[in-house]
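Your task:
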Amino acid sequence: MKRILLAASIAGLSACSSYQVPDSPVFAANSHWVIMPMANHSNTPMAAEKVEEILNAQLYAKGIRATIYPELNTNDLAVIIDDSAKRRQAQTWLASQPADYIITGSVEEWHYKSGLDGEPAVGITLEIKSAKSKTTLWRATGSRGGWGRESVSGTGHIVIDELLDGVNVENLE
């Protein structure tokens, strides 16, 4: 009976998250890393910008000193809502950067589920590209539903951390 309960508990807990994280090639941490705008496919405004900031902090903790694209300086609401203006400005900025690797991706989910407990739900895809060839070197995706008292950003930290566990970084200092 104990084994059945243990197996059911493990199955129930593992159903809350899903990850596809392949191992990456070995990247040099001291290379020039750039975080570019992420696509926001969620229904939450500014979710991509939140993920970019969390990603930048977690890369720093792994020994990667990434530069994030500059903010879009405008008061025009139409431009702020339209991601294409931000992407164009970021691409122009990237052309002047000595980048080796580009990190980008998308946010599929970033919200609280409706209902009594309102658990957080997060889905993120990360991609590392060569800045020179623009080819994708690594891509991973993950999603997680948190518990009732957990925050969306806390759940996002966990998902990003799980994804970055697949990135092999070599410190050459």
In short: The radius of gyration is 18 Å.
